[in-house]
Amino acid sequence: MATYNANTVREEARLEELANCVEERGVEILGVQEHRRVHTDQPILYHKVGGCSFITSSAWRNDAQAATGGVGLMVSPRARRALRRVQQHTDRILVADFEGNPVTTVMIREEARLEELANCVEERGVEILGVQEHRRVHTDQPILYYKVGGCSFITSSAWRNDAQAATGGVGLMVSPRARRALRRVQQHTDRILVADFEGNPVTTVMSVYSPTNAAPVEDVEKFYDELRTAIHHVPAHNFLVMLGDFNARLGPEDAPFTYHNNTNRNGEYLSALLTEHELLAANTLFRKRMGKRWTFQDRASGMLRQLDYILVRRKWRSSVLNAESYSTFDSVGSDHQVVSLSTSTSHPFWSLREWQEGEGRGRHGKQGNHHTHHPYDNTLQEERRRGREEERGGGEEERRRGGEEERRGGRERRGGEEERGEEERKKEGEEERKSGGRGEEKERKRGGEEERRRGERMEERGKGVEEER
């Protein structure tokens, strides 16, 4: 169910466009305010608009005789068939009763969107889809199975908050082949669902949903304690994949290639879990451009964040071929990017978070793909090639930057050497000038000494001649 202030919806073209939007998005019942259609002679009117029915109570006229107000409902054919009664309680309040529960919203709970999600799973060859915050409450049964298209949707119950609004809930959507391979599904807690699938090795998939970073620290600590217990019960030889909305930011000090420059509070708890249980956040292992790292876009602010991670055991690092985020399930209306993981064991996994329209917050989902042989295996080669190209591209970029730095260093060294050479030449010249001056002085001194000695010899000869005379 949704609500809309029509204002100028009186125009037929605008009304038809509104009906088209209702049909495209699978809305069953749309409340319309201020349609400004005046029909005081009839309290309730029914209009056919496209495939929908538009039910209105009359607007009224103000002192200037301008049409004002008016409320109504635009309903789908299914909701129209379920309509039992419509009453104009006042000119501002319209009341309608429907048989059963046709009221749905533009989110994953509505059948149309759930079917679209199942179609995306089938078209893209996804075998296992983890879903968080589906908000389906069935406390009388811990696990429920639904048939959606060609897939099976397995849910553990959501819970109700203090305002009695449905909150949380995790589940799995699986293909027919994965359904046949399913050995066990366990609701470990209301935030952790664990499933084992036959294979060699056995694949254990966890769908987890963490409290937000603004939640009380006691709730976060309780969640991670329960998650540690769940991991402890998974055999060491199982291929463990955790598809989670961890509501956590990791910085470069905690993972190799992250979107954020720092780690938040939830990120510190996640980092401690990775270290304690020798886990890796697969979508932080590869050098990717920033557009391949963020997983969530806030609809209100437009801010980008990396909150969703696919965790694997460190022992499987050599089997991880590629991991990145990109938009694949746009038709479901997600505010989260898809996060994919490809492995050499033919277990490509995906991650997705659904959305809730009315409150502007995200509905959450993770999906994974597990198979041994499938036409979708052909995409593994593409994933491998893309991963290698990303690595080569990153390496070439590193080498280019390194070459530029080396060239800059070489220029700086040459400049320094030239400066040092000039200084040395100046010093040598100065020393030569100094040594040359000292040499001339010595020469003058030696010349003076020789002149004196010659003079003395001449005097001695003169004296000898005089004596002989």
Automatic annotation (TrEMBL):
Q: What InterPro entries is this protein classified in? A: Endo/exonu/phosph_ase_sf, Endo/exonuclease/phosphatase, ExoIII-like
Pfam families (alphabetical): Exo_endo_phos
- Swiss-Prot/TrEMBL GO biological process terms: DNA repair
Q: Which SUPFAM superfamilies match?
A: DNase I-like (SSF56219)
Q: From start to end residue, where is composition biased (Basic residues)?
A: 363-373
Start and end of every Endonuclease/exonuclease/phosphatase domain? Answer: 111-336
Annotated spans, Disordered: 357-469
Which terms in the Gene Ontology molecular function aspect does this entry carry?
A: double-stranded DNA 3'-5' DNA exonuclease activity
Write down the PANTHER family for this protein, in alphabetical order.
EXODEOXYRIBONUCLEASE III
Name the UniProt record assigns to this protein? Endonuclease/exonuclease/phosphatase domain-containing protein
**Species the sequence originates in:** Muraenolepis orangiensis
